[in-house]
């Protein structure tokens, strides 16, 4: 029987027996279907907003501008209403994430995922049947609520059921399913773009499929032991822990979870507790990672890739095919991350990828600045080069800021603020995704290639943050992060030197050490 052997902050070796069971694998894959929902929506939005039949029905002024011979290449798709179609989802996701964090704590991770799938299903039906822009936006808001609930619950669920040594790889399944969802959406968009005049309805209605997968699959999975114990179901929590670990000797882990839960019950206002001195390191890092994920420029590339390729002179079908080619890279990159993240750690991947994305995004900006003017068409070989550079950019994102942007915030918060803290991090992601989605086409119109150089500057900041301020969390049990990670970090340890750490928290830590020694 393989055992997870660890060393705690006091230097005492601890053995937490844990197998990678089929129960954990199945639960992870089903829960990760929440990522499939998110990814499908990201991919489908960018493709549909480039379809003539969709623009002609809902955004006629953009359709006319797109086909004007003398229209400014950078401003063809500049429409606040068109951007609202894409970005409205993230407004609803912000609200959904906040409510989802409360639901996660009060009702559990599993019911929260089920609520997410229902919202997403309703949104898909509304969009597929849309008769006007109001109905279209209403559907997007329902989709956003579903994504808010799902993105709150799924990473927490996976982090809590996974053994520490496999937590990174298993949690990245969420991001892998996002990339597969994006690729699937691109393929569907390419096929439906030829089905005039209802192809866009098929594309948008297809979102019901991943929602049904999560809804039906969630009936088969277990709740996390942490959530069960947190809601007073101790015996069921112990039984589930034995089931997912594949061993009977889970007393140490069960005791650790129980002590953490007992301390969390003393925290009546977890959101307020986040702002205490001892909660700031996790809050700052969790929020910044999600914000930085958007400032890589990924939303620019993912939400508007077909639009960007059309701006460069590629036709509608050629743009969609190019999007399929580039998005094939992301699942491969994420699969690579699953293999190496628990071997090389989180920080190494973030730093390497920041450099890789800086080079590729900067090169794209140079090509557009030099060769794409207001009304010309870029030479074909330059368009192909941009597609290659987008692939290089996406590969770097797929094994770094993409998956790790969800993994790290889900594993760094202590249980007393875990749901609240993770919701703040995810809300930051949605807020800045909304801002990027709502402003990119306008920025492209006014700043032109300078838009890409702006994101290059952000990548420099991100690389420095990962190198100097982000602690490594590889292989650390989720409930031991404070003692073994934050209190050992050169910068963040200063936040634990005074009484604000909380007497209750210190007592819990002492109890853990005593139980370990015993």
Automatic annotation (TrEMBL):
The record gives the membrane topology as: Multi-pass membrane protein
Q: What GO terms are given for molecular function?
A: monosaccharide transmembrane transporter activity; symporter activity
Q: Which InterPro entries match?
A: MFS_dom, MFS_STP/MST-like_plant, MFS_sugar_transport-like, STP/PLT_plant, Sugar/inositol_transpt, Sugar_transporter_CS
**Which GO cellular component term is one of those annotated?**
membrane
* Similarity comment: Belongs to the major facilitator superfamily. Sugar transporter (TC 2.A.1.1) family.
* Domain annotation Major facilitator superfamily (MFS) profile: ranges: 27-474
- Keywords for this entry? Membrane, Sugar transport, Symport, Transmembrane, Transmembrane helix, Transport
Family matches, as NCBIfam families: SP
Q: What is this protein called?
A: Major facilitator superfamily (MFS) profile domain-containing protein
Spans traversing the lipid bilayer = 20-40, 81-103, 115-131, 137-158, 170-192, 198-222, 283-307, 319-341, 348-370, 382-408, 420-440, 452-470
Q: Which organism is it from?
A: Populus tomentosa
Primary localization class, coarse: membrane
Q: Where in the cell is it found?
A: Membrane
Q: Which residues form a coiled coil?
A: none
């Amino acid at each position: 029987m393989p055992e997870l052997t660890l060393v705690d902050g006091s230097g005492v070796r601890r053995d937490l027996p844990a197998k990678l069971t089929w129960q954990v694998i199945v639960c992870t894959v089903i829960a990760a279907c929440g990522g499939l929902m998110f990814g499908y929506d990201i991919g489908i939005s960018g493709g549909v907003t480039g379809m003539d039949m969709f623009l002609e029905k809902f955004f006629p002024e953009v359709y006319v501008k797109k086909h004007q011979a003398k229209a400014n290449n950078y401003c063809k798709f500049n429409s606040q209403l068109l951007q609202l179609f894409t970005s409205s989802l993230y407004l609803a996701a912000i609200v959904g994430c906040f409510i989802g964090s409360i639901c996660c704590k009060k009702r559990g991770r599993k019911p929260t995922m089920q609520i997410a799938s229902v919202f997403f299903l309703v949104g898909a039906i509304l969009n597929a049947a849309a008769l006007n822009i109001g109905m279209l936006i209403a559907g997007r808001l329902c989709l956003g609520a579903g994504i808010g609930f799902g993105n709150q619950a799924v990473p927490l669920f996976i982090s809590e059921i996974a053994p520490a040594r496999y937590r990174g790889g298993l949690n990245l399944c969420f991001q892998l399913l996002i990339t597969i969802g994006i690729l699937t959406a691109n393929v569907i968009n390419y096929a439906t773009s030829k089905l005039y005049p209802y192809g866009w309805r098929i594309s948008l209605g297809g979102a019901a499929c991943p929602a049904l997968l999560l809804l039906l699959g969630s009936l088969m999975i277990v709740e996390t032991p942490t959530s069960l114990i947190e809601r007073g179901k101790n015996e069921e929590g112990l039984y589930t822990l034995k089931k997912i670990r594949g061993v009977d000797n889970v007393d140490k882990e069960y005791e650790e979870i129980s002590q953490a839960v007992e301390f969390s019950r003393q925290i009546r206002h977890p959101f307020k507790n986040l702002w205490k001195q001892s909660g700031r390191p996790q809050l700052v890092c969790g929020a910044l990672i999600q914000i930085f994920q958007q400032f890589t420029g990924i939303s620019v590339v993912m939400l508007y890739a077909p639009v960007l390729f059309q701006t460069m002179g590629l036709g509608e079908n050629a743009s969609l095919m190019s999007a399929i080619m580039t998005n094939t890279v992301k699942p491969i990159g994420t699969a690579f991350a699953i293999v190496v993240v628990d071997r090389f750690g989180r920080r190494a991947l973030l730093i390497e990828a920041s450099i890789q994305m800086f080079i590729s995004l900067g090169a794209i900006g140079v090509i557009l600045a030099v060769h794409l003017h207001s009304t010309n068409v870029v030479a074909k070989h330059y368009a192909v080069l941009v597609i290659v550079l987008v692939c290089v950019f996406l590969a770097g994102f797929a094994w770094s800021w993409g998956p790790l942007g969800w993994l790290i915030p889900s594993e760094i918060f202590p249980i007393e603020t875990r749901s609240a803290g993770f919701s703040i991090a995810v809300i930051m992601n949605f807020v800045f995704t909304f801002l990027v989605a709502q402003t990119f086409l306008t920025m492209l119109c006014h700043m032109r290639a300078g838009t890409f150089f702006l994101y290059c500057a952000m990548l420099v900041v991100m690389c420095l943050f990962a190198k100097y301020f982000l602690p490594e969390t590889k292989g650390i049990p989720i409930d031991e992060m404070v003692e073994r990670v934050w209190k050992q970090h050169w910068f963040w340890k200063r936040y634990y030197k005074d009484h604000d750490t909380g007497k209750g928290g210190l007592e819990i830590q002492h109890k853990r050490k005593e139980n370990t020694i015993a």
